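User: Sequence in, structure out. Go.
Assistant: Echoing your sequence, followed by the structure tokens.
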Amino acid sequence: MEKIFNDTQVAFALKTDNELERAYFLFKMIDNEPLVRIGTAITNFALKVHLPVESLIRVTVFDHFCGGTTEDDCLSVVDKMFTKGVSSVLDYSVEGKEEEEQFDAALQMTLKTIEFAKERKAIPFAVFKPTGLGRFYLYEKIGEKQPLTLEEQKEWNRVVARFDLICKTAHDKDVSLLIDGEESWMQDTADELVTDMMRKYNKKKAIVFNTLQLYRWDRIYYLKKIHEQAKAEGFFIGMKIVRGAYMEKENNRAEEMGYPTPICESKEATDINYDTTMTYMMDNLDVMSIFAGTHNESSTYKMIEMMESRGISKNDNRIWFGQLYGMSDNISYNLAKYGFNVAKYLPFGPVRDVMPYLIRRAEENTSVAGQTSRELNLLKTERQRRKLNK
């Protein structure tokens, strides 16, 4: 099919010359792996001892990858992107919390983003992380079939209640809800809870979406199992499919604890797993809705080809493409130009609290072969195009 992702004029139409230069500088830095590791260590130290570095972080990496420090900050970015047909998913990207007050705060923020989504066509989804609503340790302990203490059971009941309130609110307001995937050793528990929410709230269509991280070789078998349950019990499946974000951590833990890694043996195997899962879902659109979260051009073209060959409308609401804010604008904005459903994950939150997310983005761009060089080549092409047209 026609290659549409090389049009940098469309990709970077919303960037000023200064923003284009900042992006180019940022990806040049990220392209240097030792520099990323040193910068990460220095940043973590500076934040730990409360050095005044937040303003520097804010005007560089934060503003490139995040929409703002509050949900209201994000609205100007949301509106700006939507002028080009690109929707937003407001992502409260505060991680690693352990206190009940923090989980309740995340609950209230997620409910607020559902309300934002209800009021604005530009925000078609809400999103949250399972560990935003409860301690990682609880998910892990339940997944290992260990009995909970009385206090832990009460704590888990509060986690379930938070999940249910969010999913019920999304259902009542008719807002689709993405629930992110996390580390494999807590994911079984999250999967069971999300499936319960699908049974309850996906009776007429997919409202609640789980996430499949397809660098895990077992995820397509999990999808097929859920598909059988959905057919037997009469509910719809929503799935966000991604390649995954915790590969190094997964492999290290498997090696340390002496069990087979859940990660595919190679990047090629992951790509095959992703495309196979994508095809399986496209073959079962009668009960499935898909949010294809990918920065991979090849997979995106395959999805487009499947839609065309099956006569599926570009704006069929069962199929969405998604990328992260600050990355792969060549995919997002060109998809939107041709009329496909596309949304950017738009992280927000206090600078200090969002740093784990930002560090993961920098490390991902450093470790994924070709990711940063592609961004740099596209930015370089657009810089040259603009110079020639001045």
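User: And one key feature?
Assistant: Residues 67-353 form a domain with the TIM Barrel fold (CATH 3.20.20.220).
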